[in-house]
């Protein structure tokens, strides 16, 4: 199961047949593993990894550190769940360290994100403070190098 | 252009030595754009960054000197520990190990240390290009034992025995094998071991691809009963740790031979580069995970590529080690060279003719799958197209 998920995480376009070939397994076994991963919520969906900085109309991203007041009996779950409901929110994590939630927000421009923070995120009851950091440049994204000057110089034929 | 002086005439062994078949093919690819290469016998991964980082740090600290002729003691200790833990063979790092510039230098130095003019060394083929050359350059005579696909290119002990004469000093084996990808089982190797014992032969065991064994486990030849005292175990860092350009290999063998090798090495190479040796220490001590990740990737590519070759009509036995597939092209009626050249010119896919690794490689191609999955798939598409054109008589063959 883990190997199947790892392959799909690298390349969601792989067919069960190709995964089976790569792993030396039966196609039926791979199909069953994928179905189980979906059913149990291990496999949330498939998406492309896009480096928007290379696009003509790029999206921008901000990392927002949120300090929040935990609720009795539910901790930070209720407030985090509420934050996930906004379309602008890309991901939400409960964090160790100096703040409680890390919220990743995507938008068309700085103003859109500022507006989200000021009008939607900060007013949520229980949000104590926010600290917004805008992404200026992407070097690595979802395990893939997005920016590099490194090159390899392999010969076409060698021993 | 002036005529070179007669004083520059080559000695006959060198003059008559054919250039490596790989080199010959390499020249054809020079200047060609858009080539998908299956000809590169090296990992397509970059050296793990922590190895580079350790070396950069060592340079900043001024570690730029010669090392002992044997190699850095810290590296030899790390190698000895690794050999013991991984393959169950014990070597004294002070006297039974030498660090060389890759296995290639080790092979040359070992042959020069061991052979007298006319000594014979049995070499199963197909095999790596330097084995026979190193024997010849040392004044010896390589005696070839052809291996066939019927036995997955594993040498048959009766064939090896038939090649042995009173002049035979030893044999050179390299498994997992470059170019075929063949591995040898413990039982196979035990037969060779018995033969070596009966005829009192040394056995050079080139195990540079040992880590790249995909099904089952690699057997270290020196770990077989009675073999430690006659085995010259060679390995290095190029393949498993993606360190080809660092040129670090080693040989483990009884102290008497190592001392002889060191004497030659000291007069010619002096020592392997210190930066490479420092990188090798880092590789052994901290890069097990990276190595396993690379091996896992090769294994996946192996399955995809070998299945792909069979699907497009190039029969390929299931290679279980190294990173090469050795498909048959015999049914096309072309020689390996003709096929490789036509494939390169027509579809810009570089694969090495099997004959670069010995005459019994005729009818085969060596294709490395140490390539990105995308490149492998592209190569398969091009090769399938090439075969269709060939069948339709639309390919110009030289």
Q: Which descriptors apply to this entry?
A:
heterodimer, A: 159 residues, alpha+beta, four-stranded antiparallel beta sheet, two-stranded antiparallel sheet, 31% helix, extended, B: 398 residues, alpha/beta, three-stranded antiparallel beta sheet, 13 helices
Provide an overview of this structure.
The complex is a heterodimer of chains A (159) and B (398). Chain A is an alpha+beta fold and 159 residues long. Chain A is 31% helix and 23% strand. In chain A, the strands form 2 sheets. A 4-stranded antiparallel beta sheet of chain A has the order 2-3-1-4. A two-stranded antiparallel sheet of chain A has the order 5-6. In chain A, strand 2 and strand 3 form a beta hairpin. In chain A, helix 2 crosses helix 3. The longest helix of chain A is centred in the N-terminal third of the chain and has 13 residues. The radius of gyration of chain A is 20 Å and the shape is extended. Chain A starts with a helix and ends with a strand. The model of chain A has no long low-confidence stretch (mean pLDDT 95). With 398 residues, chain B is an alpha/beta fold. Chain B has 13 helices and 13 strands. Chain B has a 7-stranded mixed beta sheet with strand order 3-9-8-7-6-4-5, with helices on both faces. In chain B, strands 10-13-12 form a 3-stranded antiparallel beta sheet. In chain B, strands 1-11 form a two-stranded parallel sheet. Chain B is globular and about 65 Å long. The two termini of chain B are 32 Å apart. The mean pLDDT of chain B is 96. At the A-B interface, helix 2 and strand 7 of A face helix 2, strand 2 and helix 11 of B. Strand 7 of chain A pairs parallel with strand 2 of chain B, so a sheet runs across the interface.
